[in-house]
């Protein structure tokens, strides 16, 4: 899934100026541990969903400085000649561990841990955060919509309300979090996500009247197609649709109006016309709250646009990339953390496990371990949350491509089922489970 | 500025299923006019800023279906063999007119008009809206921040809070709307936007103490660099910074705390230390309101992250792509519009002009003209708003690349100066000027 295009300049300038200075003063080779985590869950949400990981792996592989990138850095005097030479052979050679894609996360969860020299690791900050913050924001919103839809199919159709590449990533993240399909063809091609869609209002307006538009669509796609019935008058549109396609009509789509009222009226009308098997899809400005409000309505499927691709009010997950431990001049590991005011965080490498009691998650347990301790131990009695994603620079192909997407989707469904009941609520609240830090030696029992 | 990669599948599936059906029933060749406009300005804003146009032109040029795209469409049975054959030679051959990039817009403003056959024009919907909705949302938020900053330099540093490609587009849109620089190196390379940035908290944490971190940075970048002083204690950080760099220190950056209080204290401390020329940059969770609240504080420059790249609460401009006129079976032009409920719009091609009285904009005048009328007449007494961007499929290079960005930035500064005083307010309100539709023949005087 490598794009082949360099991703190396998707980087904030200060990362390269720090590299430049670190190569001069010798600290560039100090071994470091950086962690990606969110200080809080945006919007009073009860959980977050990790997404972007599989996509990130190939972007890290493409993080190479080619002639074009190096020429820019030299000509714009971003770094000096020695740094340009160093970047020329750069290839990330460290280790990345992290939560599996699709996993839930909570405040402080170390969703990615990047280990390497300072030079190795510092320059990946922006790329990693761009991908994880965007995709996790979408997946988190999408999971809430998937909970609200309660098993009814949900299609993502918001590409037009997001940047053209973010739209593809959004379709992918929504699918991982429980959506069933996307309107975005590039997401279909790139990630093998099922695609859907039949016609827009322009189709009806193009034709001399609604009937000829419907007839033409049914001729092309068969009576099992979905007809958009709200270009002029919905009741008239439904009548025309059934007259043209017959009672075997696959579906009607409604894109405007007060949906609970309209859906009930359309269902009654379809049933009266004998079209009892015709499904109703609604697509007008839905978000998780509107979907939940339609739970008792005769709606068969939802199409969601703007709200899912913009994270339903929270377009970024707000995660940060922080140095939590580093090697000292004498080679010892030292936990480090910013001390000032509201942005303080916990230094030290975290080993993460989720305490599961009788199938239900109760605690996010983060054990602060010696950064030199690379053993795989997790707190006893917990489900281990971290897996190796990149080892000595080599990415794990199992997490990439369409296979990675399917794996993440399955994993998400499994772990979401571990949420305590309160975790499924849509209103603002505390995280579904508390995050507990453990210092020092492994506890005898979690 | 062509990326060389096909953009053809950044498309919602329904566009291709409509194309498929239209090629069968003969309506594919009907000439059509589609318009891009916003029904309202999100968030009670007083104006919108058009952005994305220059970027879009090269993406339209790359909208070609190559072997990989065609194979996907065939294998996934999105369209039939005849449509695959048609797409194989597709290249947009119509005309696109639109508002200049950087121009202001108001409800209903036809910021882009796409003319061609139905087949030509319908399949560009998603790509056009993705680019214009994202970039215009960012530019609109950025313009408000630029107004609030009132001449102080503003840097965009939000890449980590946006998808990796949207981040580059956001840097570009913010620069057009008045930002002075970006942290994003790819935006520097691709669009020649000035880049900035020196060091993160990780730089200080990497070193044995703050003093050695500062010393090393000053050694590498000179005393004119900007030192980040809030890793531990700000007052101590400022003292150390001036001790290390001397009173000629270029700047200090503060990324946390109550900024009005902190900025005043740091200014007093710097002055007492003789560092009267040292500038103060603040970068902590700023948006247009926080910037406005710092107007009286001794702040020299702002760095804005999350809020600008996410449109400060409105991550999409919410513009739509609507068929407004089409050719009938007999070759006449017919204005068309969706009739139902809250999403109704005005049919017919619009000719747009802004009434300017003594240098101040007073009205957005949209004259509904016969779609066959391709003369360049605008309502008399107004500034013409539409220019030709693509003619017979050929894009106008003047609007593309770094030159296009500089032109858009200049144009934005000029036209923003035409706003009436009420247009500069940040609170929720009506649009700065009303949109007035004129039907029928040209008026004798606007």
UniProtKB/TrEMBL annotation, chains A, B:
Pathway: Cofactor biosynthesis; NAD(+) biosynthesis; nicotinate D-ribonucleotide from nicotinate: step 1/1
Example GO BP: NAD+ biosynthetic process via the salvage pathway
Record domain Nicotinate/nicotinamide phosphoribosyltransferase: where: 154-342
InterPro entries assigned to the protein according to its UniProt record, in alphabetical order: Aldolase_TIM (IPR013785), N/Namide_PRibTrfase (IPR041525), NAPRTase_N (IPR040727), Nic_PRibTrfase-Fam (IPR007229), Nic_PRibTrfase_pncB (IPR006405), Nicotinate_pribotase-like_C (IPR036068)
All copies of domain Nicotinate phosphoribosyltransferase N-terminal, residue ranges: 9-133
A Gene Ontology molecular function term of the record: nicotinate phosphoribosyltransferase activity
Alphabetic keyword roster: Glycosyltransferase, Ligase, Phosphoprotein, Pyridine nucleotide biosynthesis, Transferase
Catalytic activity: 5-phospho-alpha-D-ribose 1-diphosphate + nicotinate + ATP + H2O = nicotinate beta-D-ribonucleotide + ADP + phosphate + diphosphate
Protein purpose: Catalyzes the first step in the biosynthesis of NAD from nicotinic acid, the ATP-dependent synthesis of beta-nicotinate D-ribonucleotide from nicotinate and 5-phospho-D-ribose 1-phosphate.
Protein's recorded name: Nicotinate phosphoribosyltransferase
